[in-house]
Amino acid sequence: MALDAKIPSGPIAEKWSKHKFEMKLVNPANKRKYNIIVVGTGLAGASAAASLGELGYNVKAFCFQDSPRRAHSIAAQGGINAAKNYANDGDSIHRLFYDTVKGGDYRAREANVHRLAEVSCNIIDQCVAQGVPFAREYGGLLDNRSFGGAQVSRTFYARGQTGQQLLLGAYSALMKETAKGTVKMFPRREMLDLVVIDDKARGIIVRNLITGELERHEADAVLLATGGYGNVFYLSTNAIGSNVTAAWRAHKKGAFFANPCYTQIHPTCIPVHGDYQSKLTLMSESLRNDGRVWVPKKKGDTRAPKDIPESEREYYLENRYPSFGNLVPRDIASRNAKSVCDDGLGVGSTQMAVYLDFADAIKRLGRDSIEEKYGNLFEMYERITGEDPYATPMMIYPAVHYTMGGLWVDYNLQSTIPGMFVLGEANFSDHGANRLGASALMQGLADGYFVIPYTLGNYLATNKLEKVTTEHPEFVAAEAAQKEKIEKLLSIKGTRTVDSFHRELGMVMWDKCGMARTEEGLKEALVRIPQIRDEFWKNVTVTGSEGEFNQVLERAGRVADFLEFAETMVTDALNRKESCGGHFREESQTEEGEAKRDDENFCHVNAWEYQGVGMTPILHKEALSFENVPLTQRSYK
Amino acid sequence: MSQKINLKLKVWRQKNTSSSGNFETYKVTTDTDASFLEMLDVVNEELIVSGKEPIAFDHDCREGICGMCGAVVNGQPHGPQRKTTLCQLHMRKFKDGDSIVLEPFRARAMPVVKDLVVDRSAFDRVVQAGGYVSVKTGGVPDANAIAISKENSDLAMDAAQCIGCSACVAACPNASAMLFVSAKVSHLALLPQGQPERHSRAKQMVMQMDKEGFGNCSNEYECEAACPKGISVSNIARMNRDYLKAGLS
């Protein structure tokens, strides 16, 4: 199967406008005749469901949490980018486009990124109209800050809770449509399978997490907005419930998985501290605007940070990257933290941490100013670690945070299964091999508010969709297969817990497929993962029964999928012999230890086609061309 | 520095909404650097290995923002630390030998689903009654078209921080949801975008709150004390004014 990205012709800045005009429309009176399923209610899913409901479609929205407002978009702290140029500092749509393509290390699709930059301004307008309380200046206009390596101030924020406020905005729009009856909300439902009829996505099987019943839902199109797969590492900044299940099961039904090896390791997280640890907590990288990153110059220096004089401190980011300093992109900041700790300069009880020091900023700006900017983050740090970051430097270490890979989609956000669209973090398209700070919120809302309402209409208007019912043999078979899988999980009654397998998998992934990857290590992982998976299916214990609220069973299903997905992820990492963005192959680095791309051989998207559990998937390639942002080696020196 | 402490837990166990529940006692040794939920994870891992059903509790982000977690710890929703969700409460707040009684957030409008998990869908229905600005996607003015004073914007943000965890309901002797409802009413009442529907919003949301079976406010201020985000009871006064005005117009 040849991958067709369906990129419109014409100059980059006109593609989206031209395409919007060329796409077919659904007559307003006919929209209510179409049933649309949206899975996931984070920024992408909630904004899509609400916008489609407003247009008049008949929408069903699903989430596994008890309310759509809980989705993990809520945890995003720092902000959302938009090319408004309110700061009058030289920003433009083209600059945001350029920065995103470059920041993604030239592994994103130019046309998608340009569209993202174009609609970024509409997103801010929309959110303000909904009542999102973005930070403002004394004159009453919106405040902007520079964020995550950007040289312009284009980030809009709501204290350290931007994701929360944007999600509550999208959620309020969703509730508005729910009240009107255009959207029907199904919380505490987990998607277990996609139903494909006549090669088109026509519905889903979900488990009602309260009663345990399996339900069939039919539709004319299915939208997945189910987030990323960072929890394959067990420890990540993702919510505990975040999982790959919906995406993976759609993959097994024919949707290609693109660039699964692209994961983002966020540089500023609270370090790991115990074997009972269940998750890692991010400290917004906005902290790097005022905090200075350093380690002691001497190995094994156990003095308290305040006792280490300036001359014996290594401000490694400022020294190695004088023009960007502490604000280098995430992948670079993370790898440098790893390298200083690998060199034995790490601090804290595990020596796997570096300092993020606010002493200079407090001296320069005053404690009140720092408190206003970062107060809630400092409080959070103190609650978790028991240390006061106003008095002593924070300790931070990188942690898995975001996944740039995801289900392959074309320019219209349609997967390789017609009628199944993928939005937000769950797709692969806009961030290349590394996502810039404050761009995830932008992409989720762009897809949901401003892209899918157009491209979905075109699909519906140009495809003849026969009426299907949930009695169709494909629905019956899909439900039966899920029932069998659940019964199998409950029947093993082994001796190990689901979490113990998840931890074991996570350790393998972090060691072999984490911040630095080697051919040797990845090959070891390909041996280990099937072993863990085999033992899981022989020796896991799942308590309780299927016909009830059963959190162990929920987790078992998710971990079973991670155990399959991990192998594809490692296969992808092994195949991509170059380093790019968040994917660092030790074999491919410059003399200075920076990521070295191989544009001649790897300037493409890897899209994997499922062949069966434990079978090597088939690789398809989508060539990437860079006509507007010339390919260069990234430099932040 | 972290250390190990031994605790006795008395935990509410209830199979489902229709069954009656009871307390079960568990012993646990925990690290003081662990979070409260990580301590429960340890208890649950031991229960699962011995073939027993683990304690069901809701949780997701574990960084204090999703609003999914929560339980009453020794009589206090989210436990003894002010402005802290259960997932952010750490075991260094407890001493070796302590007993901890753990119960679900209880209210007639929020029935127990299982153990510590409750049904908070009433909150969604209250928001559906009017907790939004009725704008559609597209066709909105430029974000800087309307200036909003920093003071009002900050106050709106203070109210908008509500995470919908329902600790306020659990803390209130009347099981009132006034703090939750007033936080949303205030957030939008303080912004120009919220003005056209300001009074009808207050009225509709309060009516739905009553319909769900939440109680009324009798100025105990327990909600504010329990709120992990420090939402102020002054929001309730603002909502009451808007509700009265809605009745007069």
Question: How are the SSEs placed, and which strands pair?
Answer:
The complex is a heterodimer of chains A (637) and B (249).
Chain A: H1 15-22, H2 28-31, E1 35-39, H3 43-55, E2 58-62, E3 80-81, H4 93-103, H5 110-130, E4 155-156, H6 162-180, E5 183-186, E6 189-197, E7 200-208, E8 214-218, E9 221-224, H7 245-252, E10 257-258, E11 263-269, E12 292-296, E13 313-314, H8 316-320, H9 330-342, E14 354-357, H10 359-365, H11 367-385, E15 394-403, E16 406-407, E17 420-422, H12 440-462, H13 473-492, H14 498-513, H15 519-539, H16 551-575, H17 599-602, E18 604-609, E19 618-623
Chain B: E1 4-13, E2 22-31, H1 36-49, E3 72-73, E4 76-77, E5 99-103, E6 112-114, E7 117-118, H2 121-128, H3 150-160, H4 167-171, H5 178-189, H6 198-212, H7 222-226, H8 234-248
Parallel strand pairs in B: 1-5
Antiparallel strand pairs in B: 1-2, 3-4, 3-5, 6-7
Helix pairs in contact in B: 2-6, 3-5, 5-6, 5-8, 6-8
Describe this structure in words.
The complex is a heterodimer of chains A (637) and B (249). Chain A contains 17 helices and 19 strands. Chain A has helices spanning 15-22, 28-31, 43-55, 93-103, 110-130, 162-180, 245-252, 316-320, 330-342, 359-365, 367-385, 440-462, 473-492, 498-513, 519-539, 551-575, 599-602; strands spanning 35-39, 58-62, 80-81, 155-156, 183-186, 189-197, 200-208, 214-218, 221-224, 257-258, 263-269, 292-296, 313-314, 354-357, 394-403, 406-407, 420-422, 604-609, 618-623. Among the domains of chain A are: 268-400, Succinate dehydrogenase/fumarate reductase flavoprotein, catalytic domain (Flavocytochrome C3, Chain A, domain 1, Alpha-Beta Complex); 479-623, Methane Monooxygenase Hydroxylase, Chain G, domain 1 (Up-down Bundle), CATH 1.20.58. Chain A is α+β, with helices and mostly antiparallel strands and 637 residues long. Chain A has a five-stranded parallel β-sheet. A five-stranded antiparallel β-sheet of chain A has the order 11-15-14-12-13. A four-stranded antiparallel β-sheet of chain A has the order 16-10-18-19. Chain B has 249 residues and is of the alpha+beta class. Chain B has two domains: 4-103, Beta-grasp domain (Ubiquitin-like (UB roll), Roll); 121-248, Orthogonal Bundle (Fumarate Reductase Iron-sulfur Protein, Chain B, domain 2). Chain B has helices at residues 36-49, 121-128, 150-160, 167-171, 178-189, 198-212, 222-226, 234-248, and strands spanning 4-13, 22-31, 72-73, 76-77, 99-103, 112-114, 117-118. In chain B, the strands form two sheets. A five-stranded mixed β-sheet of chain B has the order 2-1-5-3-4. In chain B, strands 6-7 form a two-stranded antiparallel ribbon. In chain B, helix 2 runs antiparallel to helix 6 (198-212), helix 3 packs antiparallel against helix 5 (178-189) and helix 5 (178-189) packs across helix 8 (234-248). Chains A and B meet through helix 3, helix 5, helix 6, helix 11 and helix 12 of A and helix 1, helix 2 and helix 3 of B.
